[in-house]
């Protein structure tokens, strides 16, 4: 292993600063959230409080990382991964209890699987790390708004539960296309510079 490869692996190691610890707390909090949601509607209020806390913690760790210069490669990679697990866990659980149309978790799981697989291949083959961009962040915000509304909207009309997830789905598609475009350009640049 070259010195450069060692340095890259070293950069991706966990750094015990506040943003990274908050990210780990968010990851751990997903488990009780899923358990509480599965008991719907008995624990709806506490589920919502925990759901909101996980999302606000995500905003807080990003703010702290940027404001106090605590951005790490680990955080840049792991933070969006926890976001994906959060979205998938909530979507699958909400669909299982009948609060969410089945196309939403299928769409999210397929899209995130594609992103994780693509990110892994780019990292392994081209040493390119895929970071979240503005479209990915906007998609996450609209998904969170959709999930938040699920805690409050009535069972009928059923079409409303489809409509509230269309903005997040459209932004996810735009984000995926944008990631593909950017990373194809990165690979082309790397190939050109090595020729």
Give an overview in words.
It is a single chain. This protein has helices at residues 3-11, 18-37, 44-67, 73-96, 103-126, 134-150, 160-163, 166-194. The protein is mainly alpha-helical. The protein has one domain (12-194): Four Helix Bundle (Hemerythrin (Met), subunit A) (Up-down Bundle). Helix 4 (73-96) runs antiparallel to helix 5 (103-126). The radius of gyration is 18 Å and the shape is globular.
Mean pLDDT: 87
| The first-level CATH class name | Mainly Alpha
Morphology call: globular
Strand % is: under 5%
CATH architecture: Up-down Bundle
Helix content: over 70%
Helical segment tally? Answer: 8
- Report on the biggest sheet: none
Structural class computed from helices and strand pairing:
mainly alpha
Number of domains: 1
What is the CATH topology classification name?
Answer: Four Helix Bundle (Hemerythrin (Met), subunit A)
Radius of gyration: 18 Å
Provide the succession of SSEs. HHHHHHHH
Count of strand segments: 0
Low-confidence stretches: none
Could you state the CATH homologous superfamily?
A: CDP-alcohol phosphotransferase transmembrane (TM) domain
Protein topology:
Elements: H1 3-11, H2 18-37, H3 44-67, H4 73-96, H5 103-126, H6 134-150, H7 160-163, H8 166-194
Task: Name some characteristics of this structure.
77% helix; 195 residues; globular; mainly alpha
Outline of the structure:
The protein has 195 residues and is an all-alpha fold.
